[in-house]
Amino acid sequence: MGIKAALPKYELYFYSTVLGLAMVWAASWIFQVSSSNVNRKTFKTSVKPGWYYFGRKMDTADLEWMMWFSTFKAHILFALSGHVLFAKICSMLAPQHRSLVYLVYGLLAVWTSMGWTYVTLILSHCILLYSISLVKIRWLCLVTGLCTLATFKCEPFVSWQIDFVKGDFELRHILFYGGCGFTIMRCMSFALENCGRKEGNYSILELLKYNFYLPFFYFGPIMTFDKFYIQVNRSDMTRKEGEMWTISLQGALHLGVVIMVDVLFHFMYIVTIPTDVKLLRHTSDWALVGLAYFNLVYDWVKAAVMFGVINTVSRLDHLDPPKPPKCITVLYVFAETHFDRGIHEWLCKYVYNYLGGKHTNVLEELVATLCTYGVTIVWLGPSPAVLTWAFFNCFGLNFELWTAKLVSMEPFASLESTMSEATSRRIRAIFNVFNFWSIVLYNILFLNSLDFAKLVAKRLFLKGFPITTVVVMFVTYCLIQVIKETERRQALIYDPGERRLIQ
C-alpha cells in the first residue's frame, strides 16, 4: 500500500473505539454460549475437566494444540535442548564445523525417534532428487519433486512407505508425514538452486546438512536452500547488540501466549462449538460471526507459537528463519493471505514469481496462480475442502488484478485523481471489507467445515440482512482503517523521506 494522508485523529479514535467494543460484544456472546452449553452431550468428548478449583472445564477439541502441550511437549523440549547444547559447544570449540554437527545430531535424533528404516526412506528421496538436480533441468526437478510428494498423498504408495516406520507410538503418523513432506520441499529447493548454479554442483553433503537440521526437520518452517547455505556457513558468529535480549523476550512472549490460550480455552469453547451444527443454528448472529473470526485468529496464534518456538532455537544458531505467519486480522487483500511464510516464500520464488513475472499481465498471472495453487494442492492433499479453498483463493487473487486493471482505466482513474487521498482511502476500505470477509469465509471452510462456512455466510448476508450485515460490515470497515493507519505509520518509519504530517 502506498503512503496515504492520515485520517483525522478523532475519526481514528472513533474507529478504534467501535472495534474494541465490537470485540468485547462478540466475546461476551461466545462466553454465554460456552457457559450455558458446557454440559451438552455433544460436548462430552471435547470439553473436559480443567481448572478444578475454579469450576471451569477446558476445550480440548484441537488435538494438534493438545498434542503440542501434552504428549509432544516432553519429546520436543528434550530434543531441542540437546540441539542447543551441542550447537553451543560446537560454536565455542569449532564454529567452522557447526553445520556438520547440526547434521550429525539431527540424523541421530531422527534415527532415535523413528528408526533406521525411516532414515533410509528419507535418504532415498534425498539421493533421488540430488541425482535429478545434476541434470540441471528445472522443470524435470520440479516434476520429479511433485511426483515424489504425491506418493505421500495417495494409495498404495502411502501404506507402502509408512510400513518403513516400525512401532505404534502416538506421534508416529504426525512425525512421518511432517518429516517426509518437508524433506521433499527442501530437496526440491536444493535441486532448483543447483540448477541455477552456473559452475559446478553443490555436494550431497550440503543437501543432507540442509535437510537434517533438526529444528526445521519435522514441522518446518521451510527456509530456501540458498538462504540456509549462506547463513549456516557464515564465519561471523558475533551477535548484534541486544540480540540475545530480543531472543529471550520472544521466548517469554511465546510462553505468555500459551498461557493466554489456555485461559481462553477455559472460558470460550471456540473450537468445539463450530462442530455442533444444531447448536450453531440456535446461536445468535453475533456469536456466530465472532466464532468465525476468533477461529481464524486462534489458528494464526497456534501457527505463530509453533513456528516461534522453532525460530527462537534457530536464531540461537545464528540463522534468520522465515517470520511467523501474518495474522488474519490484518489481511484484507488476497495477495497477502498466507499462514506459513516459509511455504509462501518457497512458492513465490520457484513458482509464482517465476511464472508471473511482474504480475501485471492478466494471462501470466492466471497461469502463475493456477500452478501455485496446484503445487499447494499436492502439498496439502487433494481433498474436497482443499480443492474448494484453492479454487476460491485462486479466483480472489486474480479478481484483485482484474479490479486493479479496471480501476486504472478511464473514467475511474480520472475520478480518483480528483479525490483527496483521505477520501480515496475511505472508498478503497469499503471494497476491502468484502475482500476481508471473503478471505474469512474461504479459510473457515478449510479450517472448520463447509457447513459452518455456509451457516456463517447465510446469517451474514441473507437471514441477518440488513441489521447484522450492515453492523458487521461497518465494524470490519473500522478494523481495516485501523490496519491501514498502522501500515501507514510503519511505512513512514521505513521511508522517512515520505513523511507527512498526521492530521
UniProtKB/TrEMBL annotation:
GO cellular component: a single term: endoplasmic reticulum membrane
GO MF assignments: acyltransferase activity
Entry superkingdom: Eukaryota
Keyword Repeat: no
Protein location: Endoplasmic reticulum membrane
Membrane topology, record value: Multi-pass membrane protein
Transmembrane segments: 12-31, 65-87, 99-121, 127-152, 173-192, 212-230, 251-271, 291-313, 429-448, 460-480
Keyword presence, Transmembrane: yes
PANTHER family with a match to the protein in the record: ACYLTRANSFERASE, HEDGEHOG ACYLTRANSFERASE-LIKE, B
Family: Belongs to the membrane-bound acyltransferase family. HHAT subfamily.
Name the UniProt record assigns to this protein: Hedgehog acyltransferase like, b
Organism: Tetraodon nigroviridis
